[in-house]
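(Protein data)
===
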Amino acid sequence: MRQVGTESGFITNDKKLRIIMYDINLVNKGAFADGSTVSVWSSASGSASILYTADDFAGILTGNYSTSLGAKWYQLLSLDGANVYGYVREDTVIIKTVNPITTSTAQGTINQMIDNDKQTLTNLLIAAEYCKRLQAKGYNVSSQKAQIKKTYLSLYNRNKKLADAPGFSDKQKGKSNLTGFAPALQNIVNDSSIGIVISTAVLITIIVVALVAGATAVYYAFYIDAKNASKDLQVSENLKKALENVDASTRETIIKELQEQINDAYNSGKFSGLNWFDILKYGAVVVGTFFVIKYVRENL
């Protein structure tokens, strides 16, 4: 049964007969974390399961809300990719008006984030190899290794979020051909003496294409991630440049090995049936001062 006006309600047929209300003024508003994180629940109850947590944007409100044990719960469009709706407590979010975002704006933001992360991964692979070679020569690179690990984990978490996120019609992965440098990065990431302790296989296959379907939700879900990707790129550039200038002979060796991996990537690309048009089409060539690194398109 609905009431006339901007706010209406009806009684659900569940055992608790919870009243679901509708407020047109909440429709398409954004729910943002009021604090460090906000939990998004499977139903309007603290005894429900948590679908996901968000440290900023949690979702777009539908206009529906309910009250349970004195707490107001907003229904929103879920960002977890597995559920249509989620619910947040009123006292854990800030409701903001979000401007409708065009697909081109959202796609541009995602494309720039992906491009930055591709270059960051390349820089970190090279920086990790420098650290391995320089440490073997007696140089102290502990601070650089800590920064590599911190930056890599930022990239890793951002890429996992992108891989799991709804709102895209297509996603493609690309694998870096700097596989020769991957063990050095692996050792740094899994070194328990550096920063937080984790154990993970180093990700050198990341998302290189993500076609936006739900522009507004995608944009607000990733606009902070895009800013962080830009910051991580600058950190990785500074790291690589600093390490390049420590020891001339080490630099010459790494440049030579980079060129060898470039040639291997080009040759494998030719013989696998890929051509440079395909590679460029998917944004898969990264050009730097001393290297060109190919990313191979593959399905998720």
In short: The two ends are 45 Å apart (CA to CA). Residues 1-17, 270-300 have pLDDT under 50 and may be disordered. The helical segments are 103-136, 142-164, 182-189, 215-244, 248-271, 276-281. The chain is about 40% helix and 25% strand.
